[in-house]
Amino acid sequence: MHIPDGYLDPWVLAIFFILTAIMWFLAFRKANKVIEDKHIPLFAVLTAAVFAAQMINWPIGPGGTTAHLVGGALVAIFLGAYGGLISMTVILLIQALLFGDGGITALGANIWNMGVVECFVGYYLYKTISKALGDTSRGKIVGAFFGGWIGITLAAFFCGLQIGISTIFPYDIAVSVPVMTIYHGLLGTIEGLITAFVVGYTLKVRPDLLELPKIDPL
Amino acid sequence: MSVFVEYIKSRWVLLSIIVMIVIVLISPLFGYAYEPMDYVVEQFHAVEQQIYEAPMPDYIIPVLGETAISGILAGLIGLFITLFVCLALGYVLRARRKE
Q1: In this predicted model, what pLDDT tens digit does every residue of A119-165 receive, in sequence order?
Q2: Residue B86 in this model has a pLDDT that exceeds 90
Q3: What residue ranges define each of the domains in chain A, with the CATH number in brackets?
Q4: What is the CB neighbour count within 10 angstroms for residue A182?
Q5: Rounded to whole angstroms, what are the CA distances from A117 to A3, A85, A154, A155, B21?
Q6: Confidence (pLDDT) at B50
Q7: Residues 111-140, chain A: which have Cβ within 8 Å of B?
Q8: Which end of chain B has fewer CB atoms surrounding its CB within 10 Å, N or C?
Q9: Residue A95: per-residue pLDDT
Q10: Measuring CA to CA, how many Å separate A89 from each of A5, A22, A26, A95, B67?
């Protein structure tokens, strides 16, 4: 889902850089107020784990497509939506600068999709569902599944929207949005399952790691 | 600070790092990527305009060529840089914390 350089029109790049910059400002401002010593190793380990997990592709998609964990919802469930955004920003910066994975000019759009959309949708869906199911372990695992699944699907929707409204592609959003959303909607069930597994396992062995103060807007 | 050091030494952090290293070691087995984005690009005949030359493009160390060991080393470098950057960023944010 990493958009390379040259796929998006300058005005699309500008809009998403501005939107992402606003979210960075809010995220770092909140992190400055909330972060504790306990957050630091969890932030580092989760971010590095997502970086490593993104190197594994599963070839089960339609048309022979592959996908990898994006991980925004997973990090956000542990750290909060803003925490997830900061974490995904580090990953996407390192991937773009060191490995050419995702364009430099497209960083704003890529961070918007995988850092803002996936983290916020994933985190608040997780919170809503787990609360609706009585804040039980089962509720949290179900919430994590839907958070991971819907989070990556909506991130892909935005990705399809950005490339669809850009004039470099001869087709419009009527083609790019359904392809990206439907394909990632199917592949995203694996993201949901991995997110649910990690949350379920953590609830068994170290439930305190899920109880740290969250770096989120509310 | 002492809590931070305590956490770094804790078993779950060390185990997590070992699991991450294992994931990077097996990553060449699952390295083939043909994402929905690639499908869309192929259908639309779009061409990437490269404006920046990354030092390890496509997770390959240029002097080692497109080999499994090259991919593993690039992954391990990325993994430890990510860990270091996050620890440094976390510590800076913590040090500047506004009560």
Answers
A1: 999 999 999 999 999 989 999 999 999 999 999 999 999 999 998 89
A2: yes
A3: 10-210 (1.10.1760.20)
A4: 16
A5: 15, 9, 7, 6, 29
A6: 79
A7: none
A8: C
A9: 96
A10: 17, 13, 14, 10, 29
Give the CA-trace dihedral at B81, B84, B88, B89, to 10 degrees.
50
Q: Is B82 on the interface with A (CB under 8 A)?
A: yes
Please report which helix (H) or strand (E) contains residue A13, including its range: helix A10-34
Query: What token pair was written down for A2?
Result: 């990493």
**Which pLDDT tens digit goes with each residue over B39-57?**
777 777 777 777 888 999 9
- What are B2's two structure tokens? 């002492």
pLDDT level of residue A218 (50, 70, 90 thresholds) = confident
* pLDDT at residue A170, rounded to an integer: 67
Non-local (6+) Cβ contacts of A6 within 8 A are: A103, A105, A168, B46, B47, B48, B49, B50, B51
- Spatial separation of the C-alpha atoms in residues B83 and B99, rounded to whole Å: 26
Q: Any CB–CB contact under 8 A between A57 and chain B? A: yes
B47 touches chain A (CB under 8 A): yes
Residue B50 near chain A (CB below 8 Å): yes
Contacts of residue A171 in chain B, CB cutoff 8 Å? Answer: 43-44
Q: ∠ CA A154-B20-B77 to the nearest 5 degrees?
A: 95
Nearest CA in chain A to B45: A169
Q: How many CB atoms lie within 10 A of CB A104?
A: 15
Contacts of B90 (CB under 8 A, 6+ apart): A35, A39, A40, A43, A44
Round the average pLDDT of chain B to a whole number and report it.
Answer: 83
pLDDT of residue A151: 97
